[in-house]
């Protein structure tokens, strides 16, 4: 295998295993910043050794073993934990390396949830909580997180560094919060899981449009959280949203990796088990009562698509109304952009175009590639091909995902073809 291929494979392994490794190390050293450093050390060693020795049969266990040994070496050098070090040393010496499979599969769920609640501690700002958790559990780079939040990369990097320092200085324990503290920290946890899922569902950068492992991890964490706080409507709404969206993952890309948009997907291939699970979770959210929150409303929108056997059967009027409700509960320019799409499908592209044009001055959307993409689609449907072409090209220049960029440039080419055919 070529070195470049090995490095890509290692990167893929790291994306899958890093959260579990960091969570396991955090339980051991009780410091999330230190845990990430130790995990990164193991990654560096893998990058040095694996091109020569080959990738081990269980790379996750190899990385965990290496990182834990680095942790013990550090404790030995610095003599930080005294008696605790001796206990850990005896534990490590008595455990055969083959047992690391059990370590990886044993308390991983608990460790990951402990890590989420630790990084979502109230001692951190809301922005820092989300950025740090996405970094540690999602394996996202600072660039990817910056794009997810529409903020500069240095800002995200500073948030993460300061967050780790704050947690260490405050001696935040690596444990689940008490019941009376749990509810206050749920909103940040919801947001983290939601953004983690979104990054997997539509990757902000890289060669692949979707990252299914990240979606699966977010969904798994959401299901576990729903078992912990079953009386919270929004956790079921969040799970419902992820279940239904996950049902479409296999149809979102072609066999060669090209994106397939919602209206062009083969609905017969949607995972109907996941759809049923999602609809059941949505019913649980509705049964709890009260006003539906933003995740339950988004799940209701996803359910409209899931129930439509063909694109033509989609109830766009209901979807438009649900987006209107979402704008009231959780107003944002992105929600307004999505409302514009729904209204255009229900009442015509000129209605959506009016809303998108009104969003042109919104600072947070200045570099958001979906604004020109959506505007280009409206213009294309209105037969304004030259304008649409420019919008699709601008959208392609703003996205950092190679697959999405190719899709947008393809749409720009369609506009040129429309112009050449005289359809002005």
UniProtKB/TrEMBL annotation:
Residues 25-79 form the RNA polymerase sigma-70 region domain. GO terms for biological process: DNA-templated transcription initiation. Residues 116-167 form the RNA polymerase sigma factor 70 region 4 type domain. It comes from the Bacteria. InterPro entries: DUF6596, RNA_pol_sigma-70_dom, RNA_pol_sigma70_r2, RNA_pol_sigma70_r4_t2, RNA_pol_sigma_r2, RNA_pol_sigma_r3/r4-like, WH-like_DNA-bd_sf. Residues 185-285 form the DUF6596 domain. This is RNA polymerase subunit sigma-24.
């Amino acid at each position: 295998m070529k070195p470049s291929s090995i490095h890509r494979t290692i990167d893929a392994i790291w994306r899958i295993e890093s959260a579990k490794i960091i969570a396991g190390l955090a339980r051991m050293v009780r410091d999330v910043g230190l845990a990430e450093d130790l995990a990164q050390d193991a990654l560096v060693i893998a990058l040095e050794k694996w091109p020569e020795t080959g990738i081990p049969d269980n790379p996750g266990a190899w990385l965990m073993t290496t990182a834990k040994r680095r942790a013990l070496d550090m404790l030995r050098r610095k003599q930080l934990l005294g008696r605790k070090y001796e206990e850990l040393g005896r534990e490590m010496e008595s455990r055969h390396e083959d047992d690391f499979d059990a370590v990886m599969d044993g308390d991983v769920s608990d460790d990951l949830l402990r890590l989420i609640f630790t990084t979502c501690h109230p001692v951190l700002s809301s922005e820092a909580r989300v950025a740090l958790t996405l970094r540690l559990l999602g394996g996202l780079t600072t660039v990817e997180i910056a794009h997810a939040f529409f903020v500069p990369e240095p800002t995200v990097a500073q948030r993460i560094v300061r967050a780790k320092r704050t947690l260490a200085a405050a001696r935040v324990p690596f444990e689940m919060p008490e019941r009376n503290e749990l509810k206050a920290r749920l909103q940040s946890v919801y947001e983290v899981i939601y953004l983690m899922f979104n990054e997997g569902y539509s990757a902000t950068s890289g060669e692949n449009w979707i990252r299914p492992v990240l979606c699966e991890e977010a969904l798994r964490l959401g299901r576990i959280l729903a078992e912990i706080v079953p009386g919270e409507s929004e956790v079921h709404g969040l799970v419902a949203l992820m279940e239904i969206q996950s049902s479409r993952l296999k149809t979102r890309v072609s066999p060669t990796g090209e994106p397939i948009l919602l209206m062009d997907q083969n609905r017969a291939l949607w995972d109907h088990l996941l759809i049923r699970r999602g609809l059941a979770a949505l019913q649980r959210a509705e049964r709890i009562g009260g006003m539906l929150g933003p995740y339950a409303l988004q799940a209701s929108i996803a359910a409209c698509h899931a129930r439509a056997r063909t694109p033509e059967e989609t109830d766009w009027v209901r979807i438009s109304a649900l987006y209107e409700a979402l704008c009231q509960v959780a107003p944002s320019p992105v929600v307004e952009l999505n409302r514009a799409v729904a209204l255009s499908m229900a009442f015509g592209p000129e209605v959506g175009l009016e809303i998108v044009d009104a969003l042109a001055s919104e600072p947070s959307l200045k570099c958001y590639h979906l604004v020109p993409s959506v505007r280009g689609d409206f213009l294309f449907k209105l037969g304004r091909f030259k304008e649409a072409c420019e919008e699709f090209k601008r959208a392609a220049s703003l996205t950092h995902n190679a697959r999405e960029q190719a899709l947008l440039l393809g749409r720009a080419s369609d506009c040129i073809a429309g112009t050449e055919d005289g359809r002005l």
